[in-house]
Fold each of these.
Amino acid sequence: MKLRELGEFGLIDRIAARASCNSGVKIGIGDDAAAIEPTTGLVTLITTDMLVEGVHFDLAFSDPVSLGRKSLAVNLSDIAAMGGMPRYFLLSLAVPHHIAVEFLDGFMVGLLEMGERFGVSLIGGDTSSSGKGMIISITVIGEQSPDLVVTRRGARPGDLICVTGTLGDSALGLSLLKRGVRDGLAISRHLDPTPRVREGIRLAEARLPSAMIDISDGLLADLGHILDLSGAGARLFLDKLPLSADYLEKCSATGEDIYSLPLSGGEDYELLFTAPPGKIATVQSVLMGIGSGCAVIGEITAAGLNLLTASGVEYTPVEWGYNHFS
Ligand code: ADP
Ligand code: MG
């Protein structure tokens, strides 16, 4: 079906018909504004992220269901990085006329599936046509006890640096997609990332991280944000970087520097956090308790950023990370 036949309000009705509301929603989609009941004693965490066709996604690569899941996942990842519990989200869409209604249906299936998985309800948004390219803007609202919220600014010299999951798969997946490959682990990590919501909440509830961020622009760029805001430096041990078997196999086949994508590739959506050495055993057991884990990849120092290979040789990265305007 053509979007023209459905119209703006037809599309909104189609979206509203599929959305379900959790208990905090007093007024959902359909009025001029949504109304939500804040949980007593908790602060509200609010984040927004935009996905622009041609910049963040390519319709030649992404199937609509994965695109829907990823659009919410990248936003949930920011709430996770604060140790927050995501609750509600708003969806603003700018859609070019050529996009089929069936594509948007698939997008909504993926989006609402990701929402249900993490107990997050769609409570509103905005809908527009677009002269060029699809734009997806999502705002997620979360909650947490004010004393449990984890920021980027608490890293102290001596803290250890930890990361969940593995690094570099997503960037490898994107480069494989550009070379015409259409499936495999790296590609699904790029098109369909898992936000580390449970990990973030558990770590925060146990008061373990001194600072935390999610890796969207690459390990070095995002670690750089923690270091800037904490007024600290770091030493990273490259042989400790968590790399998947799939990554190692595909990367050694291309003969590329194996550290380049894990350090600078971006879109891993893993959690990067710091914690005092005495808390690391608890970090591991808390994460193991939810079937997850983390790797200790370095330590916080007073200043500077040093990357060391297994033999203790200083390593200079080819790139420092993704920057939209450079
Ligand atoms: P207004 O013109 O008053 O801004 P809209 O017609 O844009 O109202 O929206 C009507 C209702 O539909 C509102 O509750 C709004 O939040 C919701 N809505 C609009 N677009 C979307 C969307 N893409 N996803 C979810 N809800 C939407
Ligand atoms: Mg509106």
Amino acid sequence: MTARILDGARVAREIRAELTPQVAAFAARGGRPPGLGIVLIGEDPASQIYVRSKARAGGEVGFWIDLHVLPASTSLADVLALVTTLNRSDRHDGILVQSPLPQAMGEGATRQVFDTIDPAKDVDGFSAESVGRLVQNRPGLRSCTPAGIMELLDRCGIDPAGRHAVIIGRSDIVGKPMALMLLHRHATVTICHSRTPDLADTCARADLLVAAIGRAGFVTRGFVKPGATVVDVGMNRLSDETEVRRFFGDGSPRIDERARKGSVLIGDVHPEVAEVAGALTPVPGGVGPLTVAMLMKNTLAAAEARAGRGT
Ligand code: NAP
């Protein structure tokens, strides 16, 4: 069997194309476009790429993007002061502080920053208010990555109701909200993590398997029930040619790609899973673009709500 590829990039383009006229209508009604404040602290290369793609996507759908790039030496107090300013601003409907924050800011800095963002502008969906609303299945701003996965499943005609969903990973931004969203859609949900015994056997009972671990090619064929839907959230970089050959095979175009770019992206799911799964999200071009599209959707929703028109 060769898995059906769930084309996240195509679905993300669809979502953004739907948003563009809605953003224009918002701007025409309110005399200003929705505004998104993005804060990047430090020089983490992956964060720089994510922020650039979020800013570009926001500009393309018609948002006003206010990008703040701060040096890694910025104090936590200064970041909190900036967030407070953005909270008070009428022009900013959404605020995004890219994580991870520089380690020098200290433990607990991320939570402090996220706790400072006005929940009405929390377009990442990480605030206690947003998470509480998700737990209670009330309308609110949802964490973008799992919300994007739900959109993908819906638009690809994959209904989680009555299915056994297994999620590997219990992070606040992916694993836990994913579990809740699937639960609300009537899946029977199992959450696995680094202390789960018999991980492969548990996963092999899943109709829907979501891998959000952060380990290259961790989910191999033995984790997957034949015909299952597999969603690969992982974004890992391989720079060693031997590793690229080991995962993708000697004839793979990824070998040339690594030579040109210095590294290639790989998910948490081993490429061999395509031979067993019924449907599979690719990396790149799967979950990543959806995360950005859902950020756009959240920003418009936050703007509509602040203008008194949303839920
Ligand atoms: P995280 O906070 O590091 O969480 C990883 C989870 O995986 C933890 O719950 C951990 O268990 C579990 N885990 C680690 N090793 C394991 C093992 N050997 N067996 C079973 N479980 C194991 O990561 P995250 O933020 O959720 O991100 C996960 C991956 O998704 C990363 O590759 C990240 O880059 C990617 N990501 C992609 C997008 C996107 O848009 N595509 C968005 C967000 C994240 P414990 O809790 O027990 O430690």
